[in-house]
Specification:
Blueprint (H helix, E strand, L loop, with lengths): L3 H9 L3 H14 L6 H13 L5 H14 L6 H11 L5 H10 L10 H11 L5 H14 L6 H10 L6 H24 L4
Helix pairs in contact: 1-2, 2-3, 2-4, 3-4, 4-6, 6-8, 7-8, 8-10, 9-10
Length: 189
Amino acid sequence: MIDQEKIHKQCLSKNPEEHIKALHKLRDNFSSLVDKQQAWNDLYNLARDDSNKRYVRRDAIFAISSAYSEMSNKERAWNDLIELANDEDDYVRHYAASALSSSLPNTSNKEQSWNDLIGLTNDVDGHVRRALVSTLRLSFSYVPNKEKAWNDLIGLTNDVDGYVRKAVASTLSFSFFYMFRIKRRHGTI
């Protein structure tokens, strides 16, 4: 049996090596932990702690992404990921943006979740915006209002970064299938 209290204490330690040990235990045993909210909070705090090395923060975000589907309060979990996607550190924002892609299918309000993602596309860092476009690509099929989502994607074609525009073009190409089916169903093509 995993001693969750011991893991929690490792997360609170001043020793960064203890954080790494705790992270691995949380990641590898999340499903079997009794208090998933405490485990989530520990992972979230490891991801937010700017005294941790970047790879620890990144790995905590990956663990959060994997654990998302097991959380009972998905709205709170989503908001935690959105908060990480607004972190001061562009490295953290990049990985949080990527982590959001596996979470949107499990959100209760997919339209609001899509809007949250679109709001993040104003990030100053092109790498973060590219990660968000990839997340939008993977999320498009889950969004109820595909016409609005399509128009949101069209708006992103004006990005100043050519790599972001290229990612948007790829996303539009991927999403075209869904739009074609909608237009055909409504007899508009």
